[in-house]
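FYI - complex with nicotinamide-adenine-dinucleotide, inputs then prediction.
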Amino acid sequence: MKKNKPRKIVSHDVIPSVMSASSHGAPVPPAERILRFGDRWKYAPAPEAPSDLKLRSRYELFIGGKFVKPSSGKYFPSINPANEQQLAEIALGNAADVERAVKAARHAYDHVWGKMSGRERGKYLFRIARLIQEKIRDLAVLESLDGGKTIRESRNIDLPLAAAHFFYHAGWADKLDYAFAGRRPRPLGVVGQIIPWNFPMLMAAWKLAPALACGNTCVLKPAETTSITALHLAEIFAEADLPEGVVNIVTGAGDTGAALVNHPDIDKIAFTGSTDVGKRIAKSLAGTRKKLTLELGGKAANIVCEDAPIDQAIEGIIQGIYFNQGHVCCAGSRLFVQEGIVEPVIRRLRNRLRSLRVGDPLDKNTDIGAINSREQLERIRSLVESGREEGAEYHEAPCELPAKGYYHAPAFFTGVADSHRIAQEEIFGPVLSVMTFRTPEEALERANNTPYGLSAGVWTDKGSKVFKLATQLRAGVVWAETYNKFDPASPFGGYKESGFGREGGKQGLAAYLQID
Ligand code: NAD
């Protein structure tokens, strides 16, 4: 086991709830049950049972309703980031495979799906939603194995939300005329969809469910490190009797995505990923007839005012940046704390970090699982290094990291200047940059001082302050007194370099329709 620096435990650091139990007359807990910050509850391992969906040693492309070999004959490994072992081989799709997939999607659009009534399309989507729901636990195990996220997160958040997206959009399929009353909504045709690795199944559902509900057919390109669950989703499509070619899945890396973007018979590209790649895609589509929506990076500000309920805010901060290993585009990675409460916020944040358990993603007790890939871990480390070099103070929770696998301890920086790279660039890991402010106006100005504009959070007891801040924050989503809450009925998307177009809600439907 690698060991981080041991921390001094101060004697007054006794958990408040344990103290209050005795001060309210409840029985005093036995001495050995008194937990000091820095200690951890000792938990026996609680591994999730294996998935009933069997991992295959090799995954093919899904084109025209069948699993087919890639034209190149090549495969690439999918690695379990928790132990660095190969899980499976994934087909490397190339331009010829994209051609086959787009042809299959066009055929399905022209002959089946584009002609089908919304009511019939809705039945397929309901069926898919129910099948996902039945397999939530099994799919969650595969998601955690392939991506490194904790089983708690994949089983309780990602998969239920993926099913919810299919349910929600199934309900819209026969009501599009009412959603856009007095106008004539029509599908776009064949859409190409490219997704990242941080929410593989959820991103697939965000993309596919609205596109299908609106009558489009799809070619989906999952991220190269997390393709496995998308291919199990393909099995669900087959089980739901979705007509052949309505959804096609071509796996591969950036070149495969670029082949999809540049295919002449694609009517729309929906991309979620980094701002750099999003910009490249926007350039290559400029001047073409193709529609485009981009969901890109973020550097969210989470603003904690002096009158905020601090314990609640601490939980929101933890939720906002440490869960899912910080692999969240809308992670509250810049924490702005009003000067009067800096000391208690930092103290409680440090204490709370010490209670987080880092390790096996498949253990139900784990709070922070594995970083998705070696590359991503190196990116996090290099940004941490830059923060130290630029003069910020680094605080890392003392925790034991497994000897094998890609892990990063939860950490935060204080003494961060707005100009530091850690305040400007996405770290995309469990590392927070803490800054202070004097007035809400100052917080607003600095929160908006970034090229991104995806999300933000506000913590205050005063409703008027919430409205003032929320309306002036240049972010697509602003959470008040909570963080990272999603619902398929609520549109999600960015401002500025965080992209354009919305996913979810009526606005998300509009992105997949031609509305005359
Ligand atoms: P990435 O941009 O490197 O890759 C995203 C996808 O694009 C992958 O499938 C990849 O294979 C593909 N791709 C790479 N180069 C391409 C090219 N030239 N043409 C077409 N496709 C190409 O991003 P990532 O590292 O996988 O994901 C992390 C990024 O995604 C972060 O920046 C994060 O903020 C962003 N993200 C945004 C949202 C959102 O809703 N705004 C959601 C999740 C993730």
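The two ends are 62 Å apart (CA to CA). The longest strand covers residues 85-91.
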